[in-house]
Amino acid sequence: MKKSMIISLLLVFASSASADQDISKKVTAKCFVNLYGGQQTIYYRTISEVQLPNLAKKLSGQMVSTVYSNKKKKIYKVNECILQSSEFNDAWARQLEAKTAQ
After folding, report:
1. What's the domain range around 56?
2. 3-state class of 34 per DSSP?
3. How many angstroms separate the CA atoms of 101 and 55, rounded?
4. Tens digits of residue pLDDT in 28-61
5. How many domains does the chain have?
């Protein structure tokens, strides 16, 4: 009886440990985007790490809040999405990020 209970507990702990490993950690991504109307901005979003590669496709056409307006604006094109700790490839994006409040 004790042996089966110990085995059951071990299985429960093992399954919860593997479930914790499946949960992806949250990261902050930054995207250099073009808005309808010709504006360009840096957009920040906290997502799970596994969503980063598909973030650019997901953001295209979405309405987002910007620092330029109280109203949401629609994203026309996403140029690049990277981790917040990384540096943009585009020089204009780097300049814009330096001016953008985070």
Report:
1. 24-99
2. strand
3. 21
4. 999 999 999 899 999 999 999 999 999 999 999 9
5. 1
Q: Which two tokens stand for residue 72?
A: 């949401």
62 φ/ψ sector (left φ>0, alpha ψ -120 to 50, else beta)? beta
Predicted TM-score (pTM) of this structure: 0.73
Q: Is residue 55 included in any domain, yes or no?
A: yes
If one counts every other C-beta atom within 10 angstroms of the C-beta of residue 73, the result is: 19
Name the token pair of 99: 């001016």
Q: Does the residue 35 lie in any domain?
A: yes
Could you give the CA distance from residue 25 to residue 29 in angstroms, rounded to a whole number?
A: 12
Residue 56 corresponds to which tokens in the numbers above?
């650019």
The position carrying tokens 């997901």 is: 58
Q: How does pLDDT run across 56-97, given as a tens digit for each residue?
A: 999 999 999 887 778 899 999 999 999 999 999 999 999 999
